[in-house]
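Morning!

As promised:
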Amino acid sequence: MSRSDHKRRREKSFFVREPLIAIMAAPLILGVLIVSVIPTLLASLIAFTDLELGLNLRWNFVGLQNFFDAFTDSLFLSSFKIGSIWALSVTILSMVLGFALALLIERRKWYSPVLKILGVFPWALSPVIVAIIWEILLNPNSGPINGWLRKFKLPGGNINLLGDFNFALPTVIVIGAWIGIPVMTVTFMASLKTISRETIEASFIDGATSFQRMRFLLIPHMRPIITALFSLNIIWNFNSFGLVYVLTSGGPGGRTYVPALFVYDESFKYGHFGYASAMGLIITVALVVVLGIYVFARNRNEVEA
Amino acid sequence: MIKTVISKISIGALVAFFFLFLGGPFVWLLGMSVKPPIDILSYEPRIFPKKFYFQNYSDALEKSGIIQAFFNSFVIATISTLIILMLAVTPSYFFARNKGILTKSVSIWILVSQIFPLSLLVIPIFLTMQRLNLINTRPGLILIYIIINLPFALWLLRGFVLSIPSELEEAAQIDGATFTQVIRKVIFPLLAPGLIVVASFTFINVWNEFFFALVILSDPEKSTLPLKLAQFLGAEGRGLFGALAAATTMAIIPSLALFALIQKRFSDNFLAGAVKG
């Protein structure tokens, strides 16, 4: 009897041996599917109505009106632009920092265990807590950053980084990257472990510089992971809400008004459920299309290379 | 020679940068939480005050509703975690042992559901909660947390079941163990560490959640901790940094404790468990 025959028989026997498990699991599986499929469908339907927040739900079918409105709403378009800058910058910044951190941790020096804990711990914090910590750090009067800039007579000591028109978005992006580092670090660490020691050693014997090792060995090895992390994080960051809500609530002057905030305000501040759903749908479709093209192009390059 | 010196220096600078960037904020928070008001107001930046001022902690606890919010968050996170674990055990076992089309399609769905924007799902969820009269109730929030955390918990747990070789179960059966005995005496003890990881992971997620708490709860009595802290910051916290820092430090402790418990497994197994085919 071949190995695969043996395996197949074992798989078949699973249902014979454990019908109880299958019966118990079935309704749960069905439940998970129902609670996740139905809201998605409902949201898509609501996007075509003028449904409003309130106790008595009345609605009219308005066709594509919400979508026309969204595409001519200059505030929504600018929010979309801010969201794109925010998601791209946070993703790239946290990726670069997470990669550097994973490399440092893999060196197994005295600092590695400390960096491992520091680099992964922010994952366990609520975005609200992170926002409060950085509010305290960036306070222009009592915060250390402004304080030390002032003390050493460096420029910028009196700038309120979270309240300044030009600095607010970059500042929030750095904080977003701070939260994004753990997932990147953990994933890159796992991926680095899968490169065989022999390959690395061979590159040393062949006299490769560390830049060459990075360029021709590590990055190609991690390319699939990088593609996946990049796509997932773009989506997560584009939809991230809590951090910016607590830090700036979109201000100053709408400079950090990311789409999640916009949709939240539209839904629960102004009560425009139909319009908000349409915007949510536009964001989702845009993300899926852009990332679909990106992943497709990446995979094709992979096959050619 | 010069090259190695340069690379040593740049690595040293990078390490220093990460220590400062990742560790600095926590040190400052801790220092702030024991600073007397006079030190907070002074322009001179100093990490720790000359004299520790622990009254910030009692001030924070006396702030209306912080203790209540701690309690609310704890109850909500505990109940959600327990229910998720109970619901996830059997299906995770099923998905680990069965390799059919159902497993494949559900696994794809679970991964896809991770990227669904909550801002799109929140309206249907809100409307459903309204219909069920669960707006502004803690059971309503718990229900939402179960729904959004169950898929990933299930998936994580499946990774741990996969690491238990099915040969062990077969051996036990050959030795005459009944099916329930196999579950109780073989699977469960081996799965216990995995259950702890999944429980901690879920608890931390719920403990930290902000968006749905904001949407569902309006009664200050029912506020969870993140909600309360955000309100505290918005209302008077910017004038009371000492108490705010103290409250925040206390809010980090449960996450820190659970994180310490799962830290090693989190880094080593988390993705392996989730990715393993």
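Residues 241-275 of chain B form the longest helix (35 residues).

Hope this helps with the figure draft.
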